[in-house]
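Collaboration report, partner site 2.

Our partner group contributed sequences for two proteins of shared interest, and the home lab folded both. The records are reproduced in the order in which they were received, starting with the first partner submission.
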Amino acid sequence: MEGSCWAQATEGHYVNGVEGIKAASLPPPGIYWRMYNVYYHADTLRDGDGDKADVGFDVKVFANVNRLIWMTKTEVLGGNFFMDGLVPVQYTDIKLDAFGVDDNKLAIGDPFVEPLGLSWHGKQYDAAVAGGAYLPVGDYDKDDAASPGKDMWTFMLTAGGTVYFDQEKTWAASILSRFETHSYKKDTDIRPGNDFHFEYGFSKTFMQTLDVGLAGYCQWQVSDDKGSDVVWDEGSHDRVVAAGPEVNYFIPKYLFFVSLRHELEFFAEDRPEGAVTTLTLTKGF
């Protein structure tokens, strides 16, 4: 029980590294379907000082996430209004020998709904802001560390921008920030601390269809965990940094995008440290 609660409560909802280069650049008006295929593996668990914890830890996660995006022609404050939502299906295999945890499960996680978003496009910049929430309706069992649901509401604010260094928009740098605040869990008296994330990217475009670059992310827990069921140090705050290569390809005839990136984590504290690989497919209609 104790190990399962710890494994479920140490992180928020948002999955780092799923957007990559030009993360703050949204498409023109239309309807878009995006499918994320995310694989994460870590066999190192870092304690609050960043040292490796000898607890027999290993976790493998594969998530298939389908997202629908509606970019409207309606303008608000000079930007295009948009909304989106997603549903994750996740397989998790987790071991934590020190706590007797050895669980695996394939199930639907908590969906995300983002009803408010604005996107801007300038001569040499893009920008976006949005607000949404994760709904605690996914599969959850407080005694199963592999449950994909989090048993809590998470409200997330997003803001970011992309800057192009030449008029042809072939050189770009981007940053996309996320702030998560969480409710108390329903089945346990735990409220995870708030999280701040940002994803960054530096890229070069070739032939108007191929992007190659460096992507990465940083994440910090910025407030203490709370609740009577918190059995670990409340003041230990998660953090991690990651970086890795990314390749994107656009097929204009079919309004189809493919992106692949692989990011290695480092400087982790109070959380797993591993690697994430993401294959993303996007189709415009």
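Second partner submission, folded after the first:
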Amino acid sequence: MASVLKSQIMVTPLSEVIGAKVSGVDISKPLDKETVKQITRAWLDYIVLVFPNQDLTQDQQLSFAKHFGNTGTRSRRPEQRPEGANYDAGIMLITNVKDDKGRYVGSLPDGEMYFHHDMCYMPKPHKGTMLYAIDLPSTGGHTRFSNMYRAYQKIPGSLKKQLAGRTALQVYDFHMTETVDIDGNLDGIHNKSQPIFVRHPETSRTALYVNRLMTAKIDGIPRDESDAILEELFSIIETTENYYEHVWTEGELAMWDNYCSCHARTDFPAEERRLLRRCTLLGEEMIPAS
């Protein structure tokens, strides 16, 4: 059932698992403290929020994001980023669009993407991501959001006990880069061991923090055992009972909590244009669940 907040913002669940639609607010305009507080509460409750029918410039998107924390920036200089100098350092284009020289003007252009947490391979993963839909293909390119609180609750008690206090190695695009030797020298490759079970810094709830795309191994146990356990965890994360699949509409902005969700992209026709604009919110070191 939809709930109406004091400032006439309406929050409507998108599924029984995760996510809500937020209507009655124009996020291109400055927001008062009460509205930000209400959106924050809804974000903590629903993990993923979708704002339909928005008309946002990149500056307006960044201004909205800054209500909820400091925005992340790209480490490369403007001339080295595919977006070029016309885009703020905090902006990434998720697109298959090419320029007149045949070069992609953004990142992550084509195809399916496995479930992952954004920036989980960094010492301080980004706490949130905001993605704004500009151009969409006729079919596919949906985003699946998995509830990692719920995934944790579904883990058998004996396995929870076995994994309590353990860490797992997160490696940038591990399952897309088969040449990575995770038992060798990882210098030059973004990687970080993170707690398998994490405590959310604001809700204090426990979430599972592994994913198929980036999690390479569980530290301190044999690889065959690690692979088997990870596959069991991935199957919990990826079951249809644990995720919501969002079908995008142009002009929507989605914001999600990377501490307690992971997400995946479905395939779409490579010849059809897809363009979304991303920014992120800086986070802190992951907190192990006690």
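Feedback sent to the partner group on the second submission included the following. The longest helix spans residues 223-238. Helices lie at 33-46, 58-65, 148-154, 157-163, 223-238.
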